[in-house]
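Recap slide: FeS assembly ATPase SufC, sequence and predicted structure.
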Amino acid sequence: SNELRIEDLRVAIEGKEILKGVSLTVRQGEVHALMGPNGSGKSTLSYALMGHPSYEVTGGSVLLNGCNLLEMEADERAKAGLFLAFQYPTAIPGVTVANFLRHAVTNIRHPDRKEGEDLIPMREFRKELRAVMDELGIDPEFARRYLNDGFSGGEKKRAEVLQLAMLKPAFAILDETDSGLDIDAVRLVSEGVNRVVQREGTGVLVITHYQRILNYIKPQFVHILLGGRIVERGGPELVEILERDGYDWVRAKHPVEA
Ligand code: ADP
Ligand code: MG
Ligand code: MG
């Protein structure tokens, strides 16, 4: 089955339970939004799916196309088809954006390749990269920059979106803080996401506090997280309701979680 299936997931940080049984299934080609006020556990979910060692899974399961995601190492998760936006958050000295992407694409397309074996051919890779950059309106010069070295928030997003477009993952989880991103960055992220959904049938989970990015990436399914539980589910109308009324009504309706 082509789906990312999160079932009754419980996650603790330093012994304190943060996620208290989260269930959410994303199928291929679907766009889901997970929204919720600050502190509701949104980032905890993305860190847990990433396999961050500080986030202890205390219950439940996550299946990626039927395979147990929680037993996989981070790189195995990527090879199995899961893209996590901030998987490579730090600067890597001497590694350009193009270089980094060539390694990442090789690893995904040739999962059994050993370290030191051939990368995908340079000409083929360059051609593909140029086409994707062109389509996303990213200056070709950007590929020669050193990865994350002094990148602005917008440039980090650019690198992330390029990575998404080149890797063409089966599923992508994007934790969009939306902090400090200008409208051009929001548009670029959205275009990149919409492109892989349409072309590759990528299933997407956008995690966000703010509705702004959801004006550009239109989710079919919206889930509201509060106090570590999904307390409301609906369609895109929920985004509009949250934009208009904020989260107070959600807290009032679910006092135990609030
Ligand atoms: P959100 O992304 O929705 O704002 P988080 O997942 O970041 O929420 O946080 C959920 C809860 O977990 C909050 O109460 C927060 O204080 C707590 N928390 C997050 N990270 C840590 C941590 N490293 N140590 C202890 N508590 C944490
Ligand atoms: Mg937060
Ligand atoms: Mg967060």
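The chain has a mean pLDDT of 92.
The first helix runs from residue 42 to 50.
(End of recap.)
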